Amino acid sequence: MTVRSGSRMDEGAYVLITGASSGIGAELAWLYAARGRPLVLWGRNAERLENVAVRARSLGVRVKTRILDLSDGAAAIKALRQDDDSHPIDIAILAAGLGDMRRGSDVVERAEDVLHLGLVNYATPSAMAAAAAERMATRGRGHIVLISSVAAFHALPFAAAYSGSKAGLKRFAEAQQMALAPLGIGVTLVSPGFVDTPMSRRVVGAKPFLQTAPAAARKIARAVDRNRPHLVFPFVFSVLRLVDTLMPWPFKRRILSAIKADQMD
């Protein structure tokens, strides 16, 4: 763990971003740094995370970094509380996640992958959101952002662990929104489609309506500013979600079963 400061001595109003070493997390770090917000950045890759932090510090804000694997949920809860003690978190953006699916050579999903995705995509971010809410409740303010996926809307036979973990996070966020609104704490659930990140580049095949990571970060920040409960992008997936809810299950099952996908290791 390292702590380094920029030239501006900001106090309070920190933005915590997990998964900040690349992709949407990195873009959000630079966006909030440009707004003058001090940052607490978490990631798994020390070199990449430090590169993100250096650019953020060049914009004149304080940046604290932490290297942590979110498969250890107990360690993540402890770390969040430690960081909040010294750098009170006003916005917690829990952007870290995994996107593994069944490989073309696999008959079924690997049990170890199912467990890992359940921890990183659902259990740990949900627990971190609860830990952040504990601290925010004492201050009477704050905002939590949970990154799900449009995959949460569909039962994907080639990615049962991924779609299932994101669906669990979606339901947790919806419940937490109702629980925390009376306490002055906002919760935004983000359900993106394909975004051009290292994770999505592993997917083999078409990526319809692909978004850039900077564009995704801007959409998420605007949703936080407006206290939106749910952000789905691009918009076409909101339409597809409506169609999905109206479609009879036997027909839907036939379509989903016919979809093929694979990813590079």
TrEMBL record:
GO terms for molecular function: gluconate 5-dehydrogenase activity. Its EC number is 1.1.1.69. It is an enzyme of class 1 (oxidoreductase). Gene3D superfamilies: NAD(P)-binding Rossmann-like Domain (3.40.50.720). Belongs to the short-chain dehydrogenases/reductases (SDR) family. This is Gluconate 5-dehydrogenase. The lineage of its organism: Bacteria, Pseudomonadati, Pseudomonadota, Alphaproteobacteria, Acetobacterales. Residues 13-193 form the Ketoreductase domain. InterPro entries: KR_dom, NAD(P)-bd_dom_sf, Sc_DH/Rdtase_CS, SDR_fam. The chain crosses the membrane at residues 12-34. GO terms for cellular component: membrane. Keywords: Membrane, Oxidoreductase, Transmembrane, Transmembrane helix. Pfam families: adh_short (PF00106).
